[in-house]
Amino acid sequence: MKVIAMILAGGKGERLYPLTRDRAKPAVPFGAIYRIIDFSLSNCVNSGIRKIYVLTQYKSLSLTRHIQHGWNILPNKLGEFVHVISAQQRIDEHWYRGTADAVFQNIYTLEQERPDLVLILAGDHVYKMDYKRLIQFHLDNKADLTIPVIEMGKGSSKEFGVVEIDQSYRIIGFTEKPPKPETIPDKPGSILVSMGIYVFNTELMVRRLIKDAKTDSQHDFGKNIVPSMVKSDRVFAFPFESGSKEGAYWKDVGTIDAYFEANMDLLSPEPTFDLFDPDWPIYTHEESYPPIKIVLTDKKRGKSYGIALNSIISPGCEIKGGKVGNSLLSPGVKVEAYAEVDSSILLNEVKVGKEAQIRRTIIDKGVRIPDGIKIGFNVEEDAKKFTVTESGIVVIPRWIRM
Amino acid sequence: MVKILVVDDEEHIRLLYKQELSEEGYEVILAENGKECLRKLDEENPDLVILDIRMPVMDGIETLGKIINKKKDIPVILNTAYSSYKDDFMTWAAEAYVVKSYDLAELKTKIKEIIDRKKESS
Questions:
Q1: Residue of B nearest to A97 (CA)
Q2: Is the pLDDT of residue A322 over 80?
Q3: A4, A94, A104, A211: best mutation site toward chain B, by most B Cβ within 10 Å?
Q4: Which of A37, A320, A345, B67 could form a disulfide with A123 if both were Cys (CB 3.0 to 4.6 A apart)?
Q5: CATH 3.40.50.11290 fits A3-265, yes or no
């Protein structure tokens, strides 16, 4: 059984702006040392799917570099690889018009590989899934298409494709983002939503993609391909819970608030989504850094101990007399004396100057926070200079001079 | 009158098709390769394309992909001396695949079928 994965990594991620100002959404850092795409890639590798294409499009430099540096780990000689395919305009002289178009435009790649099954993944979801079980389920049901689904509250129907199934898990209805969704029988408050992941029998997928390419549609899996296949083909729903061993944690970190929350989730002592799982390692690109250093300074105002509480701290971080709490620090972050960082996400090489106070703030790579500055305490003031979300999270973009 | 664009790099084939299909009552226009085909598609707005596969400049399979993106609803009949391309995914985008033969009967039948179907649906 030959399976290839195609990871769609071309979305703009506009709602994650300014984190996506200089990078595609899958390349946005997550969990201190990872990029969002590392989760889908790690799932593939851990599931034994090791022919992986990453389809990129907008702002792909950072993503391509990350994959070249961090994911050059599969032996090509054994037919295993992670290849980045940028939009080539081989068929069409446009950017991809939708998710289905992205795959259709790469039909020549499928042609060369001729897999039995194609696994279509999103490059911007945070979750763990054993795709082996998904594929087994697909084969057991003699399905043409299988879609992992997850149970959610009725209220979230406007964000997802809502699935209706029969007793055998066959999908009998699929509606993209309905205001009034079909709820699960005997669970009136819940719906089953599509996770935007698909296993297709290759030949049938190609036929359906061609048919779609020849019609006026949005060329989108969720909006066009799936609803039409539900009518004509064997489409099944794979309950996500049965493919994940630690409960159903799945996040499409679509907004800054969701991104912030998902990062903060990792700070729980035993999070549902655990990075410290020896059976399901998450791989990434790691540069060499010196070890973490948390030390005291002994200057004008007397001794100041470096402290980090309830936080995730990466290699290369130096906390020299500052205090860090409830935060995630990416590699190479420096926090100087008397500075305080609380409930914040500091990305690579951020430097927080002396006596600065940072609260509920995401600071993008390389930003230097001057001595004595306060951020996250006065929404109105912060909003004059930075992006501030609905729930009051401040985002300080890259390259800013403060 | 139904307008057919015949794309083939061999001149004698183009002339033969032009003569035979004109006798069937079609208006026939010609192109030597895929690139010329795409240009004529814009200029002449044909109702159907008969497309060879092995051609210089731009082959029929690449051309077919571009036709779909340019004009979604224009039917294409692939017409080649080889049956081996039938496995190529992109050839599945054609309305029909007819292997070349000295006798154009099969090709003519397919053309008629497709034109009739098109008339019905419009």
A1: B69
A2: yes
A3: A104
A4: A37
A5: no
